């Protein structure tokens, strides 16, 4: 069962029950007037209207929570389905949820699809990890572009459009990110993730370190200043000493901590498991899953590594500020980590027994929701332009 409430009209409520078919996943439509649910065993996808109580069924959706995408203006939807052992893409007009047509996809086992963020003329479709294949389709079913970097190995793991719509980032199990240019349909750059960063390099390497709180207190008293990351970390047991974490700028060459995936287990922890573009498409960050403590930030304009952030614990989540080039990172600890082109900083969460396992930005970039297993909190961050006006030097805090 799915329940919905109105924020502006507290007396309005809605319950959706799909009967014996069950519901495995539910999502909002872009207009917030419809809810899309997927039944058990992917028997059907149902569009429920909250205005007229009407519903539209799409049989045999490919996945429960994936392979459903909307255009940026919310006018059209693409839904992957599978029947007769073949993948199809159903096109729907969201105004009346009428079918615009269906065409077959040249995939063995379609993994997901995504509309271009800037127009409605390109749909990216990629295959399962068993084969490296990414395709660009037009809404009328024409295959505009097909790309495969290699064969006979595990293929794509993450795919993401840049906000400008000119690049398609493809992260794969070979630990390489390839940025495809939509104009030439060719890779612009390939970013590999070596086990050591060597010089000469323009990248700044930030390494998280933990030190006694008293050392920093003495420095604060002598300098008469304080900044991000000044709060102490109290140990779980009474005998633990107060400590703080901060970033230190490391000199190259720097070795990146790594782990070898187990060869006898499925879904190896290797390859690009996390990738996202900045709002202006100037940067892209990645996490190589067999280097789980490191976040790589790449400069697309310069086609080089801009920064490398190495942490003590594996990265749980990272997200770009939706307005400014700023990254927020969490590692399942009571700390929040942030990076901007000016530098990086560590911030302690002043809540007892609160560890950040996930985070999400407010659309205006002024605040964050930090999630624990059983609680959450909101934190407000200064606007990046205000930081520049106040001339806050993150590099000084990280040194």
What does this protein look like?
With 399 residues, this protein is mainly β. 6% of the residues lie in helices and 45% in strands. The protein contains 3 helices and 33 strands. It has helices at residues 213-223, 384-390, 394-398; strands spanning 2-5, 13-16, 25-28, 34-38, 44-49, 55-59, 68-70, 76-83, 86-93, 98-104, 110-115, 123-127, 134-137, 143-147, 156-161, 167-172, 176-181, 186-192, 196-197, 204-212, 243-250, 254-255, 272-277, 283-288, 294-299, 304-310, 317-320, 327-330, 335-340, 343-348, 358-361, 367-371, 376-380. The strands form 9 sheets. A 6-stranded mixed β-sheet has the order 21-20-26-25-24-23. A 4-stranded antiparallel β-sheet has the order 3-4-5-6, with no helix packed on it. The longest helix has 11 residues, at 213-223. The relative contact order is 0.08. Mean pLDDT is 88; it is low at 220-231, 234-239 and 389-399.
List the helices and strands and how they pair.
Layout (H helix, E strand, L loop, with lengths): L1 E4 L7 E4 L8 E4 L5 E5 L5 E6 L5 E5 L8 E3 L5 E8 L2 E8 L4 E7 L5 E6 L7 E5 L6 E4 L5 E5 L8 E6 L5 E6 L3 E6 L4 E7 L3 E2 L6 E9 H11 L19 E8 L3 E2 L16 E6 L5 E6 L5 E6 L4 E7 L6 E4 L6 E4 L4 E6 L2 E6 L9 E4 L5 E5 L4 E5 L3 H7 L3 H5 L1
Parallel strand pairs: 20-26
Antiparallel strand pairs: 1-2, 3-4, 4-5, 5-6, 7-8, 8-9, 9-10, 11-12, 12-13, 13-14, 15-16, 16-17, 17-18, 19-22, 20-21, 23-24, 24-25, 25-26, 27-28, 28-29, 29-30, 31-32, 32-33
